[in-house]
What we know:
184 residues, alpha/beta, Rossmann fold, 8 helices, 18% strand, binds S-adenosylmethionine
Amino acid sequence: MEISKLIRKPEFPRSSGYGQDWMMDNQMGPNAVWLTEWLLEVLDLKAGMRVLDLGCGRAMTSIFLARESGVQVWAADLWITPDHNWQRVLEAGVGDLVFPLRSEAHALPFAEGFFDAVVSIDAYQYFGTDVLYLAYLSRFLRPGGMLGVVMPALMQPIDDVIPEHLVRPKPMAKCSGRMGVGAS
Ligand SMILES: C[S@@+](CC[C@H](N)C(=O)[O-])C[C@H]1O[C@@H](n2cnc3c(N)ncnc32)[C@H](O)[C@@H]1O
């Protein structure tokens, strides 16, 4: 099936307003724009709120949150350089709302109670598995602040045979330096 038919889904009407190539070029796993649209159904974000997008990757999720909800987003990531994320942010026209930075999830450079919401799309599983981590992260939320985490999973159970495309090795993305620093 054509990619354009796969990528436009009636259950994700807001995502359909975003470029197919943009989504494909910047994806790092499942469609993060869909996952963010899904999250917005349950997260009551209001324009002007301060949001941390932790493990934002190529900042598609941060851009989507800023454009769709008018929130200010601190787009924090370890592997992806903020320089390239800033270019994506500018191209998307949300330079006044999205602030990219490189940050390690266990050493966040923010004041306690700074954020109205913390979101993490397809990323929490990389750094949040320690039992103490949630308490650490929560301290950056104001009292009554919101935490929204989306982790990918299968839409349908796999019966007997694992589909061929799931067992096929994926080519590694090109990156340079330790831990992929310099990746885009
Ligand atoms: C699968 S990618 C998802 C990126 C993005 N949220 C998306 O859905 O497109 C996971 C992201 O988690 C980030 N990450 C992994 N470990 C991290 C850590 N310890 N601190 C901050 N970010 C981390 C990586 O840099 C990577 O960009």
